[in-house]
Write a sequence for this structure.
């Protein structure tokens, strides 16, 4: 059973004494999640943008770029639509570069805001599609509902099958255990596993061909509590730092609300 946003907030708050993740980062994700959850029931991109900006000012790095982006949105609200179109799913690099140039902000900042803004709206659309029982395409590694990349993998607590969790709409789907979801590589000699410390329930699975990686949690060994991909994503930030140090490709920001 999925955790509610309120339950996820409680789980995130429980991470605050942790030494493996910054307290300010956890607080930022809590504030953003609350704003995204409000947008599920009362969709309003402008209010969501303002809430994310406020959270970044409290717990992130609020520099000149953020001020320029906020000023652009205040003077031209349609910028938010341009932002979601340019970066929400598979970022259009040309459109993204053009938008970054016009707004005089970096592309990574636009990707961060664009995905956080789009996530609750895509979650609603995904839920509606599932309720309508529309047939889903077979996954090539990307989300069969919204087409975004997975942000996390888990091994099912009952049968050990591999599930991928969308980093944008939050949908989960089964995928081959020994295959790269980013490039389709099935050559086991090019698929590696990198564990950190003595935690045998969480590790990095990477592909030496495309240099992509995915954090994985084995629910057969993890703590017996409701599973939330977002909580795992935040709690295992240290694994992203290890992957970055090892030279694996960066991933789009995890924006899903579950």
């Amino acid at each position: 059973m999925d955790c509610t946003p309120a339950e996820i907030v409680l789980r995130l708050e429980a991470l605050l004494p942790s030494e493996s993740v910054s307290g300010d980062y956890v607080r930022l994700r809590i504030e953003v999640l609350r704003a995204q959850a409000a947008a599920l029931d009362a969709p309003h991109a402008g209010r969501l943008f303002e809430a994310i900006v406020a959270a970044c000012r409290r717990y992130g790095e609020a520099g000149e770029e953020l001020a320029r982006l906020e000023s652009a949105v205040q003077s031209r609200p349609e910028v938010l639509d341009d932002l979601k179109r340019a970066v929400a799913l598979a970022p259009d690099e040309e459109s993204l570069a053009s938008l970054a140039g016009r707004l005089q902000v970096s592309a990574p900042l636009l990707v961060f805001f664009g995905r956080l803004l789009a996530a609750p709206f895509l979650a609603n659309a995904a839920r509606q599609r599932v309720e309508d029982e529309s047939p889903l395409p077979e996954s090539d590694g990307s989300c069969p509902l919204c087409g975004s990349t997975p942000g996390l993998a888990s091994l099912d607590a009952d049968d050990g099958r591999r599930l991928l969790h969308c980093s944008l709409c939050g949908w989960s789907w089964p995928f081959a255990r020994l295959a790269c979801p980013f490039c389709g590589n099935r050559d086991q000699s090019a698929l590696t596993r990198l564990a950190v410390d003595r935690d045998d329930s969480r590790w990095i699975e990477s592909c030496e061909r495309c240099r992509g990686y995915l954090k994985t949690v084995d629910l057969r060994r993890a703590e017996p509590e409701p599973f939330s991909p977002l909580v795992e994503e935040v709690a295992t930030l240290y694994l992203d730092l290890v992957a970055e140090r090892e030279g694996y490709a960066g991933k789009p920001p995890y924006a899903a609300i579950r």
Observations:
- Residues 5-131 form one domain.
- Strands lie at 150-155, 162-166, 172-174, 191-195, 202-207, 213-218.
- The first helix runs from residue 5 to 13.
- The mean pLDDT is 90.
